[in-house]
Amino acid sequence: MVYSENELVFCVNCKKEIENIKKQGVMTKEELLLVKHPQKVFQVNYPIKKDDGTIEIITAYRVQYNLNLGPGKGGIRFHQDVDLDEVSELAFGMMLKTSVTDLPFGGAKGGVRINPKNYSKSELEKISRGYVRELFNAVGPTKDVPAPDVNTNPQIMSWMLDEYEKIAGEKSPAFITGKPISDGGSEGRDKSTAMGGFYILGEEYADVEDKSSICVAIQGFGNAGSVMAELLYNDGYKVVAISDSSCALYDKNGLNIPKILEKTYKDGSKIARLDSLDLEKITNEELLELDVDLLVPAALGGVINSQNADNIKAPIVLELANGPVLPDAEQILEAKGTRIIPGLIANSGGVIVSYFEWDQNLKGEHWTLEEVNTKLKDRIIGAFSKIKDLAQKENLSLRKAANKIAIKRVIDKADIN
Q: Is the pLDDT of residue 331 over 60?
């Protein structure tokens, strides 16, 4: 499984992920040895004073899994279940993602073991600033560049940037990405995950003149899923099903995505409350098993597993979420001829535009939305084409080809005395 910077995901121990790739036959024993362990691991414990005057010790992590390709790159999540195994797994995934998209970054990830709902805004600011103070010497524009992840956002990135610049004694916007535009953030970052996946689908269906002939089901209507639904609808695809955590909506003739977005954005309604639209409601599980041309899991990981893989009918599955197709399910789907576009490339738009933000900051530039999207399309399609070419040449699945390319690029840059 591979993870994006801003979505809750299904996590497993990093050793299991490495074992899964090992089984794919894309690594030699020597290569396995070189990526088996993270290069640098940090655990810090620091105090904050809460609003009521009490002292609490905060536990936080940063894992720089591999820096062969450049500074570390990866988000910081705030979650009560964060631990070193999870952060290591996420950092390993970021190593693969930055590598396969040919970015000048290594893989890293961070986490703070808190439930942010239990803290006030001022307390979250103290936690954010404390994280930077504790790890100041390990991070920076040429060392490790953090970003948002689960339960973190542009405001938290802004606090962290301000703390870093106070300690450094100079402006350094390239220290962190996912910032507000006013602090040096990039145009297009908010929609970049879905936009990258949309560009890949444009390649997949390049020969289809009538996009309305392609029926699509999208599980998940958060940031990535809702943007993808809107992009596909506007491009003429027939989006027949969408869902959030409450339920799924289905119409074999196609959903009116703009109307649904208007309703959900206007009052924050869950899909289950959109009774005025008079649409058929089904379960998330039923959505996955619809007879459609394209299935886009855009919610949590692990939703396609050995229990339901036999019932998946879509010939193409694009992983907009992270790790939605488990390894045992993938074997079943591959045996049926299902084409899986792995999240390693399908949802890499977020980290690509994070790279653009870092690049703009270093150069003192600010690109237009059109420039960002053009560069995103060129990079993600270029990376996807290499994956497809290798898959065809060596008769590999897209996932195996992506992993092989990513691992080789990391290994080729290894500094061995």
A: yes
Q: Is the pLDDT of residue 16 over 90?
A: no
Range of the domain at 36: 14-185
Query: Strand order in 106-112's β-sheet?
Result: 40-49, 55-66, 106-112, 72-78, 144-148
CATH no. for residue 96?
3.40.50.10860
pLDDT at 18 over 70: no
State the CATH number of the domain containing residue 241: 3.40.50.720
pLDDT digits (tens, 9 = 90+) for 47-83: 999 999 999 999 999 999 999 999 999 999 999 999 9
User: Helix 369-394 crosses helix 192-204 at what angle (to 10 degrees)?
Assistant: 50
Contact 380, 372 (CB under 8 A): no
Residue of 89, 69, 102, 11 whose CA lies nearest to 323: 11
Same domain, 196 and 181: no
Contact by Cβ (8 Å): 40, 27: no
Do 147 and 227 have their domain in common? no
DSSP codes joined into one string, 347-388: TTHHHHHHHHHHHHHHHT----HHHHHHHHHHHHHHHHHHHH
341 domain-assigned: yes
Answer yes or no: are the C-beta atoms of 53 and 82 closer than 8 Å.
no
Tokens of 288: 């996955």
Q: How many domains does the chain have?
A: 2
Among candidates 146, 107, 79, 102, which has minimal Cα distance to 3? 107
Residue 91 lies in a domain: yes
**Which pLDDT value is given to residue 236?**
97
Q: What is the pLDDT of residue 247?
A: 86
Among residues of the chain, what percentage have pLDDT more than 90?
78
**Are 57 and 147 part of one and the same domain?**
yes
- The distance in angstroms from the start CA to the end CA of the chain is 32
Q: Are residues 173 and 62 in the same domain?
A: yes
Does 109 qualify as catalytic in the annotation?
Answer: yes
325/341 Cα distance (integer angstroms): 10
Q: Among the options 73, 97, 109, 143, which is catalytic?
A: 109
What letter represents residue 375's amino acid?
K
